[in-house]
Design a protein that fits this description.
Order of helices and strands: EEEEHHEHEHEHEEEHEHH
Mean pLDDT: 86
Helix content: 25-40%
CATH architecture of the largest domain: 3-Layer(aba) Sandwich
Structural class: alpha/beta
Largest sheet: 7 strands, parallel
Distance between the termini: 50 Å
Number of strands: 11
CATH superfamily of the largest domain: SPOUT methyltransferase, trefoil knot domain
CATH topology of the largest domain: Alpha/beta knot
Low-confidence stretches: 53-62
Amino acid sequence: MHRVLVRCPSAACGIVFEPHERWLGKNMYCPACGARMTARPLEVDAALARRPDLPPQSAESARERLPFVVVADNLRSLWNVGSIFRTADACGVSRIVLCGISGCPPRAEIAKTALGAERAVAWEYRADASTALGPLREEGYTPVALERTPQSIPLDEASWPERVCLVLGNEVAGVSSTLLRDCALHVHIPMLGVKSSLNVAVAFGIAAFAIGRALAPRVGARFSAEAEAEARR
């Protein structure tokens, strides 16, 4: 009988084990370290890791890509993932790195909110977000956490680096403490109400538009009226 094995995505753990069949494809916690994870068979993880970045659908969709990468770690909602793809396309993001339990295309739930943007923005999957940051730093990207912390500064006061890697965290837990230590800059969105945070896809839209507007003049890109309208939706 074929045994289905899964691996904990935490770089500090990485244990391989056989979960009960009822957990396959679902969110669970690592029995060794307690890390939140998706019980994804090893062969599926391997196939995702080998998957090349999806090329843009056309030269037109690649025209305004910026030195702007997004790392989305442990997003539990496929609808949020799809929404992030759609906003990423409007704001010139060149690549999305989906990590941990974050769902990956093709999924009907992602397509429902991405509306084709998941085929226009390049993406890749990495089990561990901290590990994914290494190659991005080698490419010259500076990791920036979108999270309110004692060190964070308001979004509109940030001085953006030449190449931005925006790090997003789980809808409930936020950006993990490990990733926060990996980020050179923390930014937050000032709030006027009683709540201290926004839905991750909404927060990403606000931050992505600000970053896109800052980076575009540096590379000679220009937001069209249609892109600005899309980013505001």
